[in-house]
Amino acid sequence: MSTTEPPKNMEEELDSEITSIRAEIRNLQRKRRFLVSSLLTSEPIRKRLQEYQASNPPSSRDKDVSPLLDAAEKHAETNHHRVAFSATTFPFKDPSPNSENPNLLGVRIDVCAGNGRFAKPYYVLLRRVPGEDKRLQVHRHTIPAFISVDKLERAFLPVPSAREEAQAEEPLKPWKKNAKKQDLTRFVHELRRQLATWYLRMDAVNLLRGKLGVVRRSVAAYHDDDDGVWTRDILSDNQEEIRLEANDLGIVSLSPTTLETTYIRLEWQDGRVGRFKLSHSGVVERAVVIGDHGRDKLLEAALTGGDAKVETVLDRLKQHLRGVPNA
Amino acid sequence: MARPKTIRAPTTASLPSNLRIPSTTPSLVKSFGKLTRQALLDLVFYWLDDRNVQSFAPYLEQDEAEGTDDEELSPYPTEQTIDDVRNAYQELQVRKGGKREVIDRILEGDWRHGITLRQLAMVDIRYMNDHPSSLRWTALELTRIFADSAQPPEIDASAYIPRVHASTFLSNIQKQISPLVKAHYYLARSSALPLTFLRIFVINSPYQNPRQPPETLTDSSRVIYVAFPDSCPFVYTSIASTGSKPSSTHAVATDTRSLQRIVRDAVPKALSLPQERYTLKATSLTAKSLQALLALRGPGRSNRAHGAFSIFADAVIEGSPLDPRPPNTVSPEEYMNRTEPEKDSNKDTEDHKEPGTSATGKKSRPSEQDTHIPKKRKLAIHSRFGTSGYLSSAPLDRLDVRLLDRPGTEGDDEDDDADHAPPSLSLTFAGSDVISGIRKLAELGVVDPERMPSWMTGEEAVSMAVVHRGHRVVKDSG
Predict the structure, then answer these.
(1) Angle at B265 between CA B264 and CA B266, to 5 degrees
(2) Per-residue model confidence as pLDDT tens digits over B306-350
(3) Would residue B16 count as lying in a domain?
(4) For chain A, what is the domain count?
(5) Domain assignment of residue B74, given as a range
(6) Where is this region: Disordered (chain B) (predicted)?
(7) A63, B77, B230, B379 - which has most CB atoms within 10 Å?
(8) Hey, which residues 40-59 in chain A have their CB within 8 Å of chain B?
(9) Does this model's pTM top 0.90?
(10) Full domain range(s) for residue A234
(11) What is the number of CB-based contacts under 8 A between chain A and chain B?
């Protein structure tokens, strides 16, 4: 029995070594692929290659790189469109055999987050409504639930529900016809605005937190020492709890009430709690602060005062603190 | 000293959290026995924590000195201080053993004076956190009711999201149901999922200290769970949505079902504000897995993009606009960069029942042949199912489909004779994950991936559907 054990161990060891090496190889291959495609899309390299190809007639010995170059150029162009216009369209074919209009119009919306990375693209797939006029209808989408696509659709892409009713009404109210027109551009515009402002709001919260200093920990682990107010960070993808570092403003917690980040809740050391509303343009619209002795109107005014920008909220609070030394 | 007789008067208050259930109640052992030993110990340490011990006070020697009635010898001596109690459980923590000794210690030792309703609620919630698939959940959508004359106001693109401010919501729901039932509420945050649980225990007595047999207080059929997912206009309940069946002839029905109905009706009312009334709408989705509900009716991107469209929800077809790699050179797995461990996907406990027909009623064979699937079929499967049942999964444990098409007729003249009712065909799929099971059947060649209707790919994101010519028929319109 004992004689077979060492080889077994060695086997396992070798196996794990092999898997780790394989993973390493895969990583390096990925990296190489990434570097190759970045090189191919870079302008100077492309020019060099083209010059080289123009001067040297393509021989059978050299591999022809022009298809690769073409693909890279096409991809780079698409990406430029996506970065510049943020909303792009593409055709998509519904694979369902029962679909009457399998050709869908896809809209892709790219939003850049505060860290300079682009979020996962959002998609809306539109389908043509059967009928003589070219009306569109949202078929599938990946917009988060707190942005109501239904509402936007009703406003910008109305589809007459009962045709005969509309026709009966038309002679009476000719101006209604205009209102029933579909406006895809405005629909996409509004949708993109909702998504972009959502990311801006999340960035604002993260900025404020960064200014105050943040400590993070995972939710799963069991923590014995509960110093300070830990709140679950709903803005991060991995389950995390965060706590603000001790600061001279006395704020112990700053967190959005929902993923939508319209309302932001504040908590102070002395038990005061506050909430303010963040508008689409980054302005603190309304604020409420309640302490043990009722509302703190001065602090509320500090939150919404000045230029009311959310980025400068902490500066205003600091000024407020200096102005009222015994606060 | 005999305890002064309490005056019993009907009140509208909720059942107090500190109402004690006698520890001798046999069903308590069952309730506690659902948990593991470690979970029980965790709970006890939480109860004995400095901040909580007031609410969960254990039975100490000084209580004995007050001279309560029990004369018989308990197997567990009463401890002097709370620290002694803590030490006793620390000892159990380091020692190996069954969970029974922990339960006995709790019920016959340190909490011999009774388990409070709150403690029982914590036990139940803990069980649910450990076993997220222990109940069947129904997803309901919160929608706003407008008065007939009022038009929807200006475009405000944000959907309504219930903001559960715990105490306000509880006092509202209490106001709604207190004339009819008496209840105990317990709100808790899920440990792993973005959910808040509300556990409601209902009882049909108007009295503060109900004189019900203690078994009633532990009756699990009187417990209703409502889960509020974060940031989305949905509510999940553990109540089977029998829907519109208010046909009970009694004015005051007192069985548990009608008590549950009362609570269900009260939830949207409690969430409503003046000038802003809400109602709950069924969404034909019932599943055991909360994970599936969160994927299909949750805050994320995947609510309205399933089946073939899951490639968009997971964003696995194209990268970010800054990615220099052309998308056809990158695998979907790489785009899914968060490589999740495959959740027991090999465990294929799919049983494929088809009452009525047996055309495709074959047992799925072991999936060793996966490696040599014809390329064409593989492509078709990928285009039909996208990533569902492969990279991402929303495990439905049951899928009920009613087909309105007449079997055998592929033609289009079928709605001309309306006088005889068309035979309808109901299919029920059951298993641990129905959609990935169908995907596996497609891989094995049992299901034709190109010709199957889209509901088989999970595209409709429902667990109950009425289908006509491959399309789901929504009840309101037909």
Answers:
(1) 90
(2) 888 888 888 888 888 888 888 877 777 777 764 333 333 333 333
(3) no
(4) 2
(5) 24-113
(6) 318-379
(7) B230
(8) 40-41
(9) no
(10) 214-323
(11) 152
